[in-house]
Amino acid sequence: MKGKVFVIGLGLIGGSLAKAVRHAHPEAVIIGTDISEKNIQLSMLLGTIDDSVSTLEAGACEADLILLAVPVNETVKILAQLADMNLKSDVLISDAGSTKDTVVKAAKPLIDKGVAFIGGHPMAGSHKSGAGAAKLHLFEHAFYLLTPGDSIEEKKVERLKEWLKGTRANFLVVTPSMHDKLTGVVSHFPHIVASGLVKQAENYSKENKLISRLAAGGFRDITRIASSSPEMWRDILLHNRDVLLELMKDWLAEMEHVKGLVENGDSEEILRFFADAKVFRDDLP
Ligand code: NAD
Q1: Which domains does the chain have, with CATH numbers?
Q2: What residues contact residue 272 under an 8 Å CB cut-off, 6+ apart?
Q3: In the prediction, which pLDDT does 169 show?
Q4: Residue nearest to atom 9 of ligand 1 (CA)
Q5: Cα(4) to centroid of ligand 1, in Å?
Q6: 48 lines ligand 1 (CB under 6 A)
Q7: Which residue among 48, 101, 232 is best mutated to probe the pocket of ligand 1, counting the most ligand atoms within 8 A of its Cβ?
Q8: Pairwise CA distance, residues 99 & 235, whole Å
Q9: How high is the pLDDT of residue 125?
């Protein structure tokens, strides 16, 4: 496809999306912006973008596709700014944020003006961040959730998928609240647990320095995601508050249950706890 693509946020996700768009649509012009001059320079050097602009307006008003790949709090602010701009009438806007309900609500002024905003979340990533971590194949075979509002025509969703086909991701359309529930269970809450486990090990390592040396193998596997960007995860928790509070309640009840089994030395039920988890885990695709 021909046209101008404007990528706001040239980190891991924005850079990877830009590379995928370029791969599938070599004739498109890709313009980028970022608050980090270093990420802009690196994106230019790596050929991720063709050019950069220093103001949102300079990139947005000419664009046929605008992709936001910034922390979700920033996405909300930028959507408000875009709503005040004179954008092309058939522009498509999407984001890559890990939460969708608050983002889609923030896009309402744009949608009310007739602008096609389609929330997006490519469900692949890394604990690395920044322009240097961006990869063409980051999203290959991953799910890519899309959350168009009711007023968005199907052909616009298809056009967005066409723009993004270089990701080679599997697109799935869901509602914003369904998105937040699903990702709360499989992504957001596990991040809290991973960071909680690391903090517990850190506390015990003050008593015994051997903890850090022994925290290898399984501990490293289960806590890998705790190395992700703290700012990004702060925003995700603030934006998916209700879902996460519900999951925390369920988790605490589960931990209380296990605690009771251990206190009572209930060998049969402890075995069942692990056996049930193993069955579900072994069945995951
Ligand atoms: P990142 O830190 O690698 O990149 C974010 C970029 O946005 C940085 O270059 C930063 O300088 C820039 N930025 C921040 N505020 C800005 C602003 N106001 N204007 C312009 N640029 C700004 O982070 P990332 O991993 O690429 O995450 C980007 C988005 O993608 C987040 O919303 C995150 O929730 C989502 N996401 C992340 C992952 C992951 O695994 N990292 C996966 C899927 C979706």
Answers
A1: 4-174 (3.40.50.720), 179-283 (1.10.3660.10)
A2: none
A3: 98
A4: 11
A5: 21
A6: no
A7: 232
A8: 9
A9: 84
